[in-house]
Amino acid sequence: MWKVVLLLSLIPLAGAWLGRYWFWTQVRMEGLRRDCGISVRELRERLGLPPGRRGTETHAAALGNAVRECGLALLEKEGNGLAKARINGAFLTKALPAFVTLIAIFAFIRRINGWGILGVSAAVLGLWTLSRLTGMAIESRAVARGAQALKTSRAFKRVADEDEVIRCAKASVWNTVWPF
Fold this sequence. Notes:
By secondary structure, this protein is mostly helical. The chain has seven helices and no strands.
């Protein structure tokens, strides 16, 4: 039974990994090569938000992530509850794989069934990945809101830079679904 649970749990994980690779990784590699002349900190300040952690990066991929995060923050300021839940759930996405791995190691030390450990661990990660996949609509709405704010702020000197950042922002939605 645990093998079936493991197999069914790997389906959303594999789908999220393939989607992330196909839609985000390739666009990110192109975005890393494009310097836009404005830092993430300056972009966040022009959009009316406090400066973030990665304030010195100037490539289009980091700026695209910043536009998506700013869109979520702007939606949260407007009172959107889904955006607030997505922001709060982002921390758990980073902590969940480490937490599940730690529990699996301790369960293995206590000599609990190995397939059971793998099955439960994969099920938790698979269900969390499914919940992140179903929340991609709010991320897309955040990208649209961030792109709207970006266009009204006229932060870039070249329109091509703005288009590339928006393209990276649309692709960065897939960066949020994979739990690793």
